[in-house]
Amino acid sequence: MKKKILIFTRCSWTYVNFRKDLIEKIDTQKFITHIVFDKTNYRFKKKDNIKYHHIPFLNPGNSLFRNLSIMYKIFILILETKPDIIHKTYYNYNLKKQYKSKVVLTVFDLWHEKNSKTFYRPKEYSLSISDHIVCPSISTKNDLFINYT
């Protein structure tokens, strides 16, 4: 039986290579994959057998109705796909740990923590629900330990 993966990712230009590599390396013979993007302007070649979803990110500037609508779409997608693995960045919504899914978090950098004049820890919730954490560099890993342990 194929494992189901639900991947939340941003479409920011900084993540183009990460997304491209991730999509190219997914073995669609082993995994049923759903990828959620915040924008519709994909900057990569779509791969067959991967389902793509457009769900905007929650934004404090949105109306309450818009944010509730986005949260509902996420809830329904998770309910329908019942993923074995959810891969996210800390930007991605405030996903609740549910459905026995393992949560994998990728932390790209700690720019906010290192440059804030206040005690700002935006990744705290995402770190608390994660089963596995991926850092693309030793520097990010060290920063993560310094700022969150």
Tell me, what's the shape?
globular
Q: Give the terminus-to-terminus CA distance.
A: 38 Å
Quaternary structure classification = single chain
Strands of the widest sheet, in order across it, are 3-2-1-4-5-6
CATH classification, class level of the domain at 3-105: Alpha Beta
Query: How much is the radius of gyration in Å?
Result: 16 Å
The fraction of residues assigned to DSSP E strands is 15-25%
- Tell me, rounded to a whole number, the average pLDDT: 80
Q: Please tell me the CATH architecture of the domain at 3-105 by its name.
A: 3-Layer(aba) Sandwich
Reading the helices and strands in chain order gives: EHEEHEEHHEH
Determine the CATH superfamily of the domain at 3-105. Glycogen Phosphorylase B
Largest sheet data? 6 strands, parallel
Task: Count every beta strand, where a strand is a DSSP E run of 2 or more residues.
Answer: 6
Folded structure, characterized:
The protein is an alpha/beta fold and 149 residues long. It has a domain at 3-105: Glycogen Phosphorylase B (Rossmann fold, 3-Layer(aba) Sandwich). Helix content is 34%, strand content 21%. It is built from five helices and six strands; from the N terminus they run βαββαββααβα. It has a six-stranded parallel sheet with strand order 3-2-1-4-5-6. The relative contact order is 0.16.
Summarize the structure.
This protein is an alpha/beta fold and 149 residues long.
Key phrases:
149 residues; 6-stranded parallel sheet; alpha/beta
